[in-house]
Amino acid sequence: QVQLVESGGGLVQPGGSLRLSCAASGSTVSMYTMGWYRQAPGKQRDLVATITSGGSINYEGRFTISRDNAKNTVFLQMNSLKPDDTAVYYCSAWRLRLGKLDRYWGQGTQVTVSS
Q: How many CB atoms are closer than 10 A to CB 69?
């Protein structure tokens, strides 16, 4: 079992930045792929970024996902935010084990980009 808790969301002006955090707990968390999804009102939940091991990966020049394995924490650095980035952002952890997919979700954190 894995428990995930997101934080760092809030209201930001267009062009601003936010850093989301996802604290994970449970056995063998390091064995899971982790990632961020987002869901805007009336829309499906879409994948933003994923990371398997420690380090960081940049997406589209605006978002960077990173992972601190020592603290079992995943971050999403969001820069140059736009109004259409407004959504609830969810942290997720998953792995394929014995032919079955185990997936866990956090409660989500609201990101609102508005003037």
A: 12
For the stretch 16-60, pLDDT in tens is 999 999 999 987 788 899 999 999 999 999 999 999 887 788 887
Tens digits of residue pLDDT in 8-24: 999 999 999 999 999 99
End-to-end CA distance of the chain: 40
Closest by CA position to 80, among listed 100, 102, 58: 58
- Rounded CA-CA distance 111/61 in Å is 19
Q: Are the beta carbons of 22 and 9 closer than 8 angstroms?
A: no
Which 3 state secondary structure label does DSSP give 78?
Answer: strand
106 burial level (CB within 10 Å; 0-12, 13-18, 19+): buried
Please give the Cα distance from 104 to 78 (Å, whole number): 23
